[in-house]
Amino acid sequence: MKIFPAIDLYNGCAVRLLKGDYNQMTIYSENPGEFAAAFEQKGAENLHLVDLEGAKSGATPNLNTIKNIVSQTNLYTELGGGIRSLSTIDKYLNIGVNRLILGTAAITEQGFVEAAIKEFGQDSIAVGIDIKEKKVAIKGWTEVTDITCDEFCKQMESIGVKTIICTDISKDGAMKGTNRQLYKSLSEKFGLDIMASGGVSTLDDIKALSDMNLYGAILGKALYTSAIDLEDAIKTVKGV
Description:
It is a single chain. The chain is α/β, with parallel strands linked by helices. It contains eleven helices and twelve strands. The chain has an eight-stranded parallel barrel with strand order 1-4-5-6-7-10-11-12, surrounded by seven helices. The protein is globular, with a radius of gyration of 16 Å.
């Protein structure tokens, strides 16, 4: 299993939200590139970025910040947040982002995911599924649809999506453990590369997810509060 330390961006800063609430935001750094470099020094090979402003607006307000982060490290970098057009995907790939995560547009724009995969390839496109009370949430978690997680995963798998990032919003930033049951169920039902996100807060969580043979796990607040040491997390998945 791959470990993806996360940096959430807002106004050029590294921040964290509690359960997706923009009114409960903690600013951790005004220089996110330093965080990325520190992650790499601790043995990270991957990085998960989220543009929280973009998630709401569909624009690219943190483009220069993301470009700086990518240029300062050799990390495999994936990015989500407001990616709702092929031109936006192209813009981010051109500055060195490796994989783009489609969220809201995968629900609201019929045919967009298929077009993105056709244009840029299966490995450059992932889909983010944000779950609130078993339903898919969109627009920076501000709207909840009537589509269930299983329905959406089945649909994405059928159109050629390879990688899914699944976040249980109720667990995100709460430091009360991740939704192991959800990820176990998804891994058994679908042939997707599944990444766990939200509430991964102990090495026990990481070991449990790794034992499910998930593709990856995203670490956010647990790293920022030192609940998990990144080096220990990497050793855990490598069985060291």
